[in-house]
């Protein structure tokens, strides 16, 4: 059996294409797959607004050294936007994806924002902290 947890391109009004995750669907490996999904729900929060809400959380609760990527629509028990969070430094720019925010597509609420920011800050600190084997930079003479 093939577990179909891949990415699905969803067509929304005005021929806008976005990425959505489809989870928990199992198909036989020899099956021809033709997927058509119709969801009749109003997305009160656009991908653009979800990205803005995630950025506000980063500024308020996480600090600098982070940036967000384009949101992904996730359809499950509730419709949400998954907003990837990347570690970014002023010198090197965007480096590593270290987490994500989940934004409710109906209410705009960033779910578990403070808890997620705590984890993001811990990961960033661990990744940005120089390793003990790295010698400190010598002062310029």
Summarize the structure.
The chain has 141 residues and is an alpha+beta fold. The chain is built from two helices and nine strands; from the N terminus they run ββββαβββββα.
Features:
globular; single chain; disordered N terminus; two-stranded antiparallel ribbon; 23% helix; seven-stranded mixed sheet; 2 helices; 141 residues; alpha+beta
Report on the architecture of this protein:
- This protein has a domain at about 45-125.
- The longest helix is centred in the middle third of the chain and has 16 residues, at about 45-60.
- It has helices at about 45-60, 115-130, and strands at about 1-5, 5-10, 15-20, 25, 65-70, 70-75, 80-90, 95-105, 110.
- Strands 2, 3, 5, 6, 7, 8 and 9 form a seven-stranded mixed beta sheet that branches.
- The protein contains two helices and nine strands.
* Unreliable parts: 1-15
Order of helices and strands: EEEEHEEEEEH
Assembly annotation: single chain
Percent in helix: 10-25%
Report the mean per-residue pLDDT as an integer: 76
Q: What does the radius of gyration come to? A: 19 Å
Topology (SSEs and partners):
Elements: E1 2-4, E2 7-12, E3 16-21, E4 25-27, H1 47-62, E5 66-68, E6 72-75, E7 79-89, E8 93-104, E9 110-111, H2 113-128
Parallel strand pairs: 3-6
Antiparallel strand pairs: 1-4, 2-3, 5-7, 6-7, 7-8, 8-9
């Amino acid at each position: 059996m093939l577990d179909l947890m891949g990415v699905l391109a969803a067509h929304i009004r005005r021929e806008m294409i976005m990425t959505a995750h489809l989870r928990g669907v199992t198909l036989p490996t020899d099956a021809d797959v033709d997927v058509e999904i119709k969801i009749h729900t109003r997305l009160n929060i656009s991908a653009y607004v979800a990205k803005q809400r995630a950025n506000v959380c980063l500024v308020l609760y996480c600090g600098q050294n982070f940036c967000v990527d384009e949101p992904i629509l996730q359809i499950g028990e509730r419709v949400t936007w998954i907003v990837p969070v990347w570690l970014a430094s002023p010198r090197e720019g965007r480096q590593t994806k270290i987490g994500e925010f989940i934004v409710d597509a109906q209410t705009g609420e960033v779910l578990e924002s403070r808890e997620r920011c705590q984890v993001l800050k811990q990961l960033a600190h661990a990744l940005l902290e120089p390793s003990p084997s790295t010698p400190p930079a010598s002062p310029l003479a």
